[in-house]
Amino acid sequence: MGTRWQALTQDPVPQEALQAAVEEIDAQMSLWRADSDLCRLNAAAPGVWVDLPAHLMTVLEAGLGIGRASGGAFDIGLGDAVAAWGFGPGAASEAAIRAARHARSPAHELLELDPARGRAMKHAPLSVDLNGIAKGYGVDRLTEVAKAHGVTSGLFAIDGELRAIGPRAFPVAVEAPLVGHRAAHSLLGLTDAAVATSGTYRHFVTVQGRRLSHLIDPATGAPLLNPPDQVTVLAKDCMSADAWAKVFMVLPQDRALTLAALNGVSVLSLGARPYATGVFAA
């Protein structure tokens, strides 16, 4: 996944079991591995059913569901735009950028899933990118494997996505959205819950002196213009926190707060118009 995983626990758990869990997710969902199951789905022609492993099917179902719930603000079908702007395995391409900026239907209208048979079919050309949700699911898998080995309390992370299990409150810093600097904005106590942060200050390109985020606007196929500097989301599981953090980067404040309440998540947005819902410990 281009980053590292971490686990903090007092209970013994084989490191190789945790490593195998994240490697399995990477093998199924990476766009940097030509032999991944996701790349195999992307390479398939429309109208052809593709057999897929269970973990990938779980993430596809969740991605399409949050896409529908958010009115398309979260769209796993932006792989062509992500790659065009140089945020994928290859370099940016002006021709690809022009091609990606077209009227598009969201992935939840183009990708059909058959969970009972473990397969998916595209109804039109579609490039699926799960970078906005797969790391969160990877964290959830770390917790599942740890629990299976008898772990009752721990903190698990992949990059900026974290999940705590058990009754202990783990201190987790919410990073200040500063380019080139690492500093804490605030601190929260994470107890049997997950947190994920999405921001514009780490992964970006500079075009004509303007910083453009790696977060693609589903409406335009181009980087978001004037998004919050950062959004942090608390949820019961890390896959949901990861995906909803992307949603709230896209949506205006009023819609974000409404969806947060409807979906039982807490959100902290930092930027020109900071806002929060839920409980965050300063």
TrEMBL record:
Catalytic activity from the UniProt record: L-threonyl-[protein] + FAD = FMN-L-threonyl-[protein] + AMP + H(+)
Binding positions (Mg(2+)): 132, 242
InterPro entries: ApbE, ApbE-like_sf
Record keyword Flavoprotein present: yes
GO MF term list: metal ion binding; transferase activity
Cofactor annotation: Mg(2+); Mn(2+)
EC number, UniProt record: 2.7.1.180
Cofactor note: Magnesium. Can also use manganese.
Coiled-coil ranges (or none): none
Keywords noted in UniProt: FAD, Flavoprotein, Magnesium, Metal-binding, Transferase
Family membership: Belongs to the ApbE family.
Name this protein carries in UniProt: FAD:protein FMN transferase
Source species of the chain: Stagnihabitans tardus
